[in-house]
Write a structure and sequence with these properties.
Layout lengths: L8 E12 L6 H16 L8 E4 L7 H9 L5 E3 L7 H14 L6 E7 L27 H15 L3 H15 L13 H6 L2 E3 L2 E2 L8 E10 H4 L7 E10 L15 H12 L8 E4 L4 H10 L8 H5 L11 E2 L4 H4 L7 H13 L11 E8 L4 E8 L5
Parallel strand pairs: 2-3, 2-4, 9-10, 9-11
Antiparallel strand pairs: 1-7, 1-8, 4-7, 5-6, 8-12, 11-12
Helix pairs in contact: 1-2, 5-9
Pfam families: Thiolase_C_1
Protein name: Acetyl-CoA acetyltransferase
Organism: Methylobacterium ajmalii
């Protein structure tokens, strides 16, 4: 029996702003520009928005800040912030609010000027009392520990981690909006400056400016709008810890829980997914999520990505925009996963286009702390 929320709401508009560098513009200005772009894409007016969902790394009350800046008074206000996975959760929250009739047009938005503001971001991964005496450099310390443990337990190599970055760059080279383009080899990644052993600079996501937004409506209305809708078929969330010192297993994330919940709601199998958009803040992320979402056995992620399996022309399309490693990463990346998934579902990705009817977006927050999975589909998947 189909889940009652499956396909009840759809993304009908997407927008971005200030990708890469946006000197002179604030986070809220970038958020507002992306929001207006998404509404224009949907063919909807700002005064029709009556639900706002927002999270940022610089506002204590992001949904209120966004509503005030945009000059709207929404009926639904939601500012859940569990890190970069917040926006996949917002998709589910917006679908629930739309289905319940609490709002008619839901706007999900994010903006950051992290790069031109000097890299400053309100940390959502600050050291906790368990970790502070050891002076970690969060968030990278936690991810480096996860990578080191994966290497120790399963024989994962630095070359296999590097293959993730090389694949991301190959996709970015097909994306004119990607911030980092140009040749990249495994040798380049291995030779990059070590930031936190075993991770080097090129194992780490970019630090950029950028904003993204999407608009959701109920499916009945989506069918009447100009752009092809991307239907929310399933979503799931999970959390395993707040402080990295409390992570039960450094090689297993809560994606093992959020993924099955999303697949069950969507009524699809992992192998039916055409496109995976995985939150690749560090190269180890992609390997962990491929394992935990069921694309290879635990410990086999490194071997899975060898030989260009997730690069253009490989067996599985992963992070076709170039990901956080080569496209854009303005502090919190989760909403950019959705933008690329919708772009691919519409068939508007240009040189990087892959045949896509089902797309999975997987968000990550904190130091592998919060995980959220969302599955979007074309009209043919309803």
């Amino acid at each position: 029996m189909a889940h009652p929320l499956r396909g009840r709401a759809a993304v009908v508009g997407i927008g971005t702003a200030g990708l890469g560098e946006a000197p002179g513009r604030s986070s809220i200005e970038l958020l507002g520009e992306a929001a207006l772009s998404a509404l224009a894409d949907a063919g909807l007016r700002l005064d029709e928005v009556d639900g706002i969902f927002a999270a940022t790394g610089v506002h204590g009350l992001p949904a209120l800040s966004a509503a005030e800046y945009l000059g709207i008074r929404p009926r639904v206000i939601e500012g859940t912030n569990v890190g970069g996975s917040s926006f996949e959760i917002h998709l589910l929250q917006a679908a629930l609010a739309l289905d319940a009739g609490l709002c008619d047009v839901a706007l999900i938005a994010y903006g950051s000027n992290q790069r031109t503001a000097g890299g400053r971001l309100v940390s959502i991964s600050e050291p906790q009392w368990h970790e502070a005496p050891y002076r970690p450099r969060h968030p990278i310390t936690g991810y480096a520990m996860a990578a080191a443990r994966h290497m120790y337990e399963f024989g994962t190599t630095r070359e296999q981690l590097a293959a993730v970055a090389v694949a991301a760059r190959a996709w970015a080279n097909r994306n004119p909006d990607a911030f980092a383009r140009g040749p990249l080899t495994v040798e380049d990644v291995l030779a990059s400056r070590v930031v936190s052993d075993p991770l080097g600079v090129l194992d780490c996501c970019l630090v950029t400016d950028g904003a993204a937004a999407c608009v959701m409506v109920r499916s009945e209305r989506a069918r009447d709008l100009a752009r092809a809708p991307a239907y929310l078929l399933g979503a799931g969330m999970a959390a395993s810890h707040r402080s990295f010192a409390q992570m039960p297993d450094l090689t297993t994330t809560a994606a093992r829980e959020s993924g099955p919940r999303a697949f069950a709601m969507a009524g699809v199998d992992p192998r039916e997914i055409d496109l995976l958009m995985l939150y690749d803040a560090f190269t180890i992320n992609t390997i962990l999520f491929l394992e935990d979402l069921g694309y290879c056995p635990k410990g086999e992620g490194g071997r899975f990505v060898e030989g260009g399996a997730i690069a253009p022309g490989g067996s599985l399309a992963v992070n076709t925009n170039g990901g956080g490693l080569s496209c854009v990463h303005p502090g919190m990346y989760g909403l950019f996963l959705v933008v690329e998934a919708v772009t691919q579902l519409r068939g508007e990705a240009g040189e990087r286009q892959v045949p896509t009817q089902l797309a999975l977006c997987h968000g990550n927050g904190g130091t592998l702390s919060s995980q959220a999975t969302a599955i979007l589909g074309s009209r043919d998947t309803l």
